[in-house]
Amino acid sequence: MQTSQKHQTRVNIHRLYHQPVKDVDQFCLPHIQILENNACSDIGSQGPSVSYQAYNDQIFTLESSTAAASFVAYDSPSAISVSSSRSPFSPQGSQSWMSDPHHSPDNTHGSPISGSSVVDDSNGLKHKLRELEVSLLGPESDIIDSCNCCFTSGAHQAASMAGLNHEQLVDMIPRLDLKEVLIACGQALYDNDKSRVAGLMHVLEKMVSVSGEPLQRLGAYVLEGLRARLESSGSNIYKALKCQEPTSSELMSYMHILFRICPYWKFAYTSANAVIKEVMEYEQRIHIIDFQIAQGTQWMYLIAALSKRPGGPPFIRVTGIDDSQSNHARGGGLSIVGQKLSEFAKSYNVPFEFHDTSVSTSEIQVQNLNIRPGEALAVNFPYVLHHMPDESVTISNHRDRLLRLVKSLSPKVVTLVEQESNTNTSPFFSRYIETLEYYTAMFESIDVACPRDDKQRISAEQHCVARDIVNMIACEGQERVERHELLGKWRSRFMMAGFSPYPLSSLVTSAVRDMLKEYNNNYRVVEREGSLYLGWINRAMATSSAWR
């Protein structure tokens, strides 16, 4: 009997993301038809081509600057990812971080680039704060290292350009490595050598392109971040980007393109839903609090799966917290999401209720969440906690405050999905190199699914990815809202808030592996210490974990 039930559970979880298209599509918001992984070329390139309008011609110009014809391109799509030997996706024979028993891959005490720790630790106060942070949060995960080993050699080679003047650099463009120029430019800005930065940025303009290879595309957006930081206008540019968003329908289509060609959001939905379904197997009344509900599509899959439960479906109540980008994309508030989910649940004969909190994540209080006795509670954090300012930004520390608040609700399970990147408290140059590595891998993963000259893909990258890159490079303090942490740090935060890990079962792993069959075979999933890592080649991109 147990074997039969286990088999049935496996089948149900497998079906969680393999419902017939018509079951979900007819209830989805415009442009969200997420069950088909069509080639990007099917989207066509005749749609609106939306470019950034110049905020300041000298600061923000994201027009496509074609690379010089004689430029020797950085043309190894996997070179950056493969050399990261400390990832759970690395081959056994590579140089291993395990040779250093004291190495803590989440530890941001020094720079991830060899030889830069002297510069990073020159500020004694930051050094002491880092020590305090480590002592409070404890040693971090030994699973994954997002240190930027692949850019280490580039950092040393970039130093060789230090003695070259502007004219010499321009003459050398056909022989320059874009990776080295990007690194040299970041180092010069970190050293506050504005004259040298200006010369290097002039060189970068001739080497980057929003329709080029992955590193060229990334370089175009990094260049704008560097310009903004140099002019101390990062916050203004970031705010300007928010003001210059495309129309609701255009933004929705751009978000849909990335959703369809990359598995990052499906990874979040699939793993979280599989865990919640497993934990709530015998509950009759379920309350789900989603701290970034977006278009609500995730819960359609879960509703469909729970409708088939032996003995009848449970009562499901969803509380949604909105974000400004999703609100703009859908063209209205969460009442739109609530209506769609209610209609979908009704079609499956699932008793359902939707609650709109009408407050932002950082302002949430217990009274906003409409907690009721007798309901089993699940809380979902999909790529949202890294936006919460922590103790390094404000004494309010909304990041940990929110975790303590959620713990006080006694949830049956909390699901967390976050980018596996280390940009929160790292010094600028360390954060800059980490951003280069992480987003090079992301642009590579997009590159295999879309033609480089596809206008829709270009617009999707500009409006859904570029702002984050500019923010991480150009902004500091409260203006920098992109503050990623590695799983080891999240683990410390959750445990300090009173949570204990809920190890993900093999059924959850199987559900994610089945989902990934729709995508390029360079995507990998690895289970370590009860959590899942989604990787592109040898680079960990996102993690999924559960807590109770």
Automatic annotation (TrEMBL):
Residue window of motif VHIID: 286-290
PROSITE patterns in the record: GRAS
Pfam families in alphabetical order: GRAS (PF03514)
Location of region: VHIID: 255-320
Chain positions covered by the region annotation SAW: 474-548
Renumbered residue ranges of the record's region Leucine repeat II (LRII): 336-368
Keyword entries, A-Z: Transcription, Transcription regulation
UniProt-annotated stretches for the region Leucine repeat I (LRI): 176-236
Origin superkingdom: Eukaryota
Biased composition (Polar residues): 107-120
InterPro entries documented for this protein: TF_GRAS
Biased composition regions of type Low complexity, renumbered to the chain: 83-96
Region annotation (Disordered) ranges: 83-120
Family of this protein: Belongs to the GRAS family.
Name of the protein this chain belongs to: Scarecrow-like protein 13
Organism field: Gossypium davidsonii (Davidson's cotton)
